[in-house]
Amino acid sequence: MQANQRQHCLRHGLSRKVFRISTYIYRTMWHFALILVMVNLRTSAFNVDTRTAVVHQSTNGSMFGFSIALHRDKDFSWLLVGAPKAQTKQPEVEEGGAVFRCSIDSPNMCQMIPFDTSGPGKIILRGNKEDMDKKSHQWFGATVHSSGENGAIVACAPRYVYYSSNLKRQDPVGTCWVVRGSFQNFQEYSPCRTTAWGYHRQGSCQAGFSAAVTKDGRQLFIGAVGSWYWQGQLYSQDLLSKESQYGTPEGPEEED
């Protein structure tokens, strides 16, 4: 009698477990099906205008379109396009990268913005003229941002390399350029180009990995992801006073 009761209880308990598992599987499959339906609805509800689209193209391999931003200046609207592997006319620079301003109305109407037209900086060392930085493959144009109408534009090269004074170290500190005044006034900002070399300090900060300018065009923010053993830094720069700059300090060792 007791054995029969135990078998009955076991069968009853097993049935309840099977029922619970079946219910769980059913609910999981129902939720999964619902997610698929929602994803399908979200992806099928949007399409690019292929009939009246304005298309801009550039040289193959330039990574034209890696970054984009909209800008308006003196009643003209522009599409800003970064091409971080574009070949420019900078002397002794290979694939330094560029930023273009393109028409929003006519296809293939783009002009390169002359942020930096010079080659590598030079230094006299032991009577010889040597490069003090490297602009080749610096990925200028990887980051592009506009502060808005008649405002400032910032474009960055996070892979820009700076050499130490004795040329023994070459660190990817990164750099950014800002243009204001209707594409007339250019200024460079490279906050990690200091004597704090080495990846354990600011040598690999890669300033310009991200960047933005406030809507009033007054304050520049630069992200430097590689500082302090890749803890990262954020710089705030007053565009009306180059000496007015603030950078977040190094955190505790356990955050390395």
TrEMBL record:
Gene Ontology MF annotations: integrin binding
Any one annotated GO CC term: integrin complex
Residue ranges of FG-GAP repeats: 50-111
InterPro entries: Int_alpha_beta-p, Integrin_alpha_N
Top-level taxon in the UniProt lineage: Eukaryota
One biological process term in Gene Ontology: integrin-mediated signaling pathway
Keywords, alphabetical: Integrin
PANTHER family (UniProt xref): INTEGRIN ALPHA (PTHR23220), INTEGRIN ALPHA-PS2 (PTHR23220:SF133)
Name of this chain's protein: Integrin alpha-PS2
Taxonomic source organism: Stegodyphus mimosarum
Organism classification: Eukaryota, Metazoa, Ecdysozoa, Arthropoda, Chelicerata
